[in-house]
Amino acid sequence: MSGGVDSAVAAARAVEAGHEVVGVHLALSRMPGTLRTGSRGCCTIEDSMDARRAADLLGIPFYVWDFSERFKDDVVDDFIAEYAAGRTPNPCMRCNERIKFAALLEKALALGFDAVCTGHYATITTDASGRRELHRASAEAKDQSYVLGVLTAEQLAHAMFPLGDTPSKDLVRAEAARRGLAVAQKPDSYDICFIPDGDTSAWLAERVGTAPGDIVDRTGAVVGSHEGAHAFTVGQRRGLRLGTPAPDGKPRFVLDVRPKERTVVVGPREALAIAEIAGSRYTWAGEPPADPTETFACDVQIRAHADPVPAIARVVERESDASGEPSGSAASVSSGASVTELVITPDAPLDGVAPGQTAVVYVGTRVLGQCTIDRTVSAVPVPA
């Protein structure tokens, strides 16, 4: 129970369905006195009090479990390391993967509980063989299956999402009001929960430090300078402060971030088009394809609120690059070794994809699996 309206209504529906329900709030902050600022942040002391009041109204036991150390190690430190390596991570994916459906689920099962129930908007179905599948919610505008794409078959076997069939968030708020839940009109949280002021660049600068370097074009020509590569993300246009204008006078965008070289690569808007993405850190949400090394049709989604794009995908084995790592990958392998990747080729180029993002693969409404993007292939060749 995060302290928001969705988890409160999910708990109420679980109680109404006859389950034995225990409310758990996760203490994830290393500063438990932190208060929520408007709709920024979550898991604060104010949120825990809201969750407790909802549990009291529902007549269920309520506990606060301290996962702050695990959250720091598995989500916050991972976020810092990914940015330091030039990638753009999604901390919500890591939190679902390593906290809510790993650390929390492990403890719940050890204590004899059957499932973790959350307020996510997604649905779980069971096929003819009894295998569980993760699907999109009925309300596409609120669908959260993307951030659950990291769940495995074992985790799906112990997950419940009571809000998945609800057509809209307004109906959930109205239900909360009818039930007398004080959080009925509480604003949704947004941005990164452990950076409540929203200034990601300043927050990272304190932890990663600054390392001045060059801004170059696709040919390697220096066109500007920067104070730290961590402050840049693929697709960024503003704040580049380039000393050399483009020959055609058009704006330039960040195409690649290379912190080891302290270099940021910029280029024209059309060079953000990506023809292929691949990741060695991939998982299947339930039953995988019969033979994932055979090309299969799918849809791919690269952001929580992006539209799915038709694509083909398959698992391939390829040699790592000369550095001993797949381009952009966090995985360390010996030079010349091979790496197994989920390679996804969209029917039409994707726009502004950055290593570190998560690509979730769908077949119809079903979440088939996901990968953390290690490398991308531009649809526009580098000029000679």
The total count of helices amounts to: 7
Number of domains: 3
CATH architecture type of the largest domain? 3-Layer(aba) Sandwich
Percentage of helical residues? 10-25%
Shape: globular
Report mean pLDDT, rounded to a whole number.
Answer: 88
Total number of strands: 19
| Secondary structural class | alpha+beta
The CATH H-level superfamily of the largest domain is: HUPs
Report on the architecture of this protein:
It is a single chain. By secondary structure, this protein is α+β, with helices and mostly antiparallel strands. It has 3 domains: 5-178, Rossmann fold, CATH 3.40.50.620; 210-267, no CATH class; 272-378, Translation factors (Elongation Factor Tu (Ef-tu), domain 3). The chain has 7 helices and 19 strands. The chain has helices at residues 5-16, 45-58, 68-84, 91-110, 153-156, 169-178, 200-208, and strands at 23-27, 62-66, 116-117, 122-126, 132-136, 159-160, 213-216, 222-226, 253-258, 263-267, 273-279, 281-284, 296-301, 309-319, 338-346, 350-351, 358-363, 366-372, 375-378. The strands form 4 sheets. Strands 4, 5, 11, 12, 13, 14, 15, 16, 17, 18 and 19 form an 11-stranded antiparallel beta sheet that branches. Strand 7 (213-216) and strand 8 (222-226) form a beta hairpin. Helix 1 (5-16) packs across helix 6. The protein starts with a helix and ends in a 6-residue tail after the last strand. Mean pLDDT is 88; it is low at 322-335. It is found in: Cytoplasm. Belongs to the MnmA/TRMU family. Residues 203-267 form the tRNA-specific 2-thiouridylase MnmA-like central domain. Its EC number is 2.8.1.13. Keywords: ATP-binding, Cytoplasm, Disulfide bond, Nucleotide-binding, RNA-binding, Transferase, tRNA processing, tRNA-binding.
